[in-house]
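>> received
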Amino acid sequence: MFYFIKKKIINLYIKIRIQINRFINFYLINLKFKNDENLSIEFNKCLQELKINGITKLPIKLDSIDQLNIKEFVEGKQMSFKDVIKIKNPYSKPDKFGKISASIDVNSSIISELFTKDLFRLIKNYYGKTFWVRNAPTLLVDLKKYRLEEKSQKLFHIDFAERQLSIMIFLADVEKNSTHMEYIKKSQKNSWIFKSVVRENYNFKKKVNEEMSKKEIFKMVGKKGDIYIFDAGNGLHRAIYGDDRYLLHFNFAQMRSYAEFDTNFEKKKNLDNESFYHWNFIYNEDVKNKLKLNSFEEKNIKWS
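>> returned
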């Protein structure tokens, strides 16, 4: 009996906390934009666009992308990306959705090339506070010829209304007939307080239809090396399935509780690289095992 009551109380607490978070997020997202004097002009423009539209293309070109031939790698004609992208584990065969995914080793040079001070400040300014890595950086491949079914990502959805920021880096050209993402601009400004965010829910789909009729739908397509950042947590987005697509994917979270790593991470010693080091992939080695929290603090980061 006690266990049953305790479980009910915990579930009620979680539901209340979720709604409080949504209220706070709604307030923070709609705050008036201010320039950051420490950001470059180009990144300030990106921050402004991210705040207004929920999505922006980063003014970054990674030289290492030019070295990659992702298609030959997936086909087995090229055995590695050298130090640019190190695959942590052998990638699996395409599943019934035509997808291949593999975690990226933290020592990949593309990671240090991507994470500059400007990018750090952009993300921190969007959240208005310290942030966390949500899960491991991932190589994602969509292959049309292996696709037997389409995932539910083809429906407009949000990632739990928790302001998750995502970064996608194109490893090959993404055209309109390729698998790509659609994003409803300005949809990240919606309030999801006391509303279902289940993509199949009738009221949620009704809200989606309203948004589609009033706001611009942006197609995330572009050239090899293009980099986009978007609010996946609050902004409506979906997958449009088509020809092959190759990209790198990164997720960030505004709260420690949304970071999907061991809850005792901060207490562990002798962390092994396979399980835990990728959560600290920006940290200076000297402070890596001394931090009480796995947050992004500027003083602890070594910059490319």
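>> The helical segments are 2-29, 41-53, 70-74, 109-114, 117-127, 202-214.
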